[in-house]
Prior knowledge:
47% of the residues lie in helices and 17% in strands. The protein is globular. The chain has two domains: 1-123 and 289-334, Isopropylmalate Dehydrogenase, CATH 3.40.718; 125-281, Isopropylmalate Dehydrogenase (3-Layer(aba) Sandwich), CATH 3.40.718. Strand 5 (127-134) and strand 6 (137-142) form a beta hairpin. Strands 3-2-1-4-11-10-5-6-9-7-8 form an eleven-stranded mixed β-sheet, with helices on both faces. By secondary structure, it is an alpha/beta fold.
Amino acid sequence: MTTIAIDVMSGDHPPREYVAGSLLALGDDAEMRVLLVGQPDQIQPHLAAVNGSLRQRIEVVPAASVVAMGDSPREAIRRKKDSSMRIAIDLVKEGKAGACVSSGNTGALTAMAHFVLKTIDGVERAAIISAIPSAHGHTQMLDLGANTKATPEQLRQFAAMGTIIARDIHGLEKPRIGLLNIGEEDIKGHEVVQAAHALLQSTRLNYVGFVEGDDIFSGEVDVVVTDGFTGNVALKTMEGAARLIGNRMREEFKSSLTSTLAGLIARPVLRRVAAGLDPNRYNGACMVGLAGIVVKSHGRADSAAFARAISTAAVAERRGLTAHIAQALTESSH
C-alpha cells in the first residue's frame, strides 16, 4: 500500500472538498491508503457514508491548528507545529507516509518542508515542478513558486533536476533545457539570468539557451527553468488566459441561433481541446530536491483536481522520486 498524508484543512475550500478529493483518489487506486490530517470534527461527518474496504484505507490524524493563507513562513514554523500542514510533513519524515499533499500557503509549505525534511545532497533549495501543456505534449517547468529569488547556481540545480524528471520519469532521451528570459539574444536579461546562462553553457546538460514566454508552449523545449516569482506569475497568467478564452467562447456560442448550432456541431472537438488544456488536469506540482515527497495542490482546486494531486504524489512515491533524483545528481557530479 502507498500511504499519502493529506492536509485537508489548508486551502481556499472547506475540508469537505479535500476529503471528497481524497475519496475520489482512493476510488481510483485500490493500492492507496490515506491519512487525513486535520480537525476530526470537520472531517468525520464527510466520512459517515463511507464504509467497507474503502473506509479501512482511511485514517484520521488529529491536528489542532491550521496554517492560514496569510501566515508568514517564519510564524508558521514557529507557532503552527500542531497544524495540519506541519503534521502531514512530519508523517513523511517519520516514515508513516510516503508523500504528503497540501493546498495551503505555498511559502509556509516550502519553509516547513525545508525545515523538517531538508534537501538532498547537492541541492540548495527545492523547486516546484509541473507539466505545462505544449504543442507536442508537455513542457516541464520549474520553479513555480517555492523560491521568489534564485541564484545562478540554484537555477543550474533546477535545470539538472528538471532534466532528471523529464528523462527518467517522462522518458525523454535528451531533454532540451531553456532558461526563461525577456528575449532569446545573449545580451538580454538581468545579471542573475546572464550568470545562470553562462553556468548552464558549461554543463553537460542539453541547454539550448534563453527562451521567451511563448516558447513554453511551442514544443521546442522540454524543460523551462526560472525563479519561483516569475514561474508563479507565468503559471497564474496561463490559468487566467485559459479561463478567459473558455468564457469568451461560451458567450459567443450563445450570441445567436447560428452560433449555438455551430457550437453544437463543434462540441465534441471543443470538449477534447478543453480537456487537454484544463489546468485542473495538471494540478499537483512536486517539490523536487527535498529528502521526501511533497506535492503542492492549487489552493482553489476542486475535489477532482485535488484527487489528481494525490495521484501525482502516489506516482512520485512509487517511482522513488527522491532517491532517484539523489542518485542521478550523485552520478552526474562524478
